[in-house]
């Protein structure tokens, strides 16, 4: 089956109009942003919304701007815009690196950062980066706006803290401290480019080259995008020599609910999580100046 079930299409011109439509149609409605996740699911009839609320035409939700010590990114900002942003290259090269290896150019031209975090695909790339950078997700609903920490946003596979009548409108990131390096690497499915196992790492060192902060996130290997606290704890307070990094990376899958499918068994993903995390830590470390 490659034809979606019948649905009514509603192009919203404002956030308020989109929220009104969500309230009106309730569980029968789905939000369309870039569409590269929802449309394929609809074509396979894995999703059959009766009403499609298109927010892609809403003005003012596509931007990357600096506000004091914070970088704000509008929810409709595309991967291509992220990839080409000098501001993000300056402060968050991790995000630029990640955007550049998402799927293909057509997907990057349409896919949005807000859509990626709202979809919360465990094998998606950008949710892991948002989590590693300890971002904040600003959402808006009938009761107004609220801000949710990335650590509290992703609840499970395709499950978030977003209420059915809320929309992601912005993501916010604190500027990193000095002597911070970051990297994203993945073992990709060659057909879909989704992560079989991926890792986003952010490291901060002090003047003595001791790790004072570590953020290590695993994608693709488990039932949700999640932080590897065992690896983080094994890095913080240490000087990151080869032995320390290897030992820390060996704990990459300690807390994960590993998945097994045609792309890799649980044991394979466990081994690859250790390999990918070790490589990503080393890459992040090399980028600290």
Automatic annotation (TrEMBL):
Note the SUPFAM superfamilies from the entry. CO dehydrogenase flavoprotein C-terminal domain-like (SSF55447), FAD-binding/transporter-associated domain-like (SSF56176)
What InterPro entries does this protein's entry cite?
A: CO_DH_flav_C (IPR005107), CO_DH_flav_C_dom_sf (IPR036683), Diverse_Substr_Oxidored (IPR051312), FAD-bd_PCMH (IPR016166), FAD-bd_PCMH-like_sf (IPR036318), FAD-bd_PCMH_sub1 (IPR016167), FAD-bd_PCMH_sub2 (IPR016169), Mopterin_DH_FAD-bd (IPR002346)
Q: Which UniProt keywords apply?
A: FAD, Flavoprotein, Oxidoreductase
Q: Which residues form the FAD-binding PCMH-type domain?
A: 2-178
Q: Does the keyword Kinase apply?
A: no
Instruction: List, alphabetically, the Pfam families matched.
Output: CO_deh_flav_C, FAD_binding_5
- Please provide, alphabetically and separated by semicolons, the GO molecular function terms listed in this UniProt record: FAD binding; oxidoreductase activity
Q: Which PANTHER family match?
A: XANTHINE DEHYDROGENASE SUBUNIT C-RELATED
Q: What is this protein called?
A: Carbon-monoxide dehydrogenase medium subunit
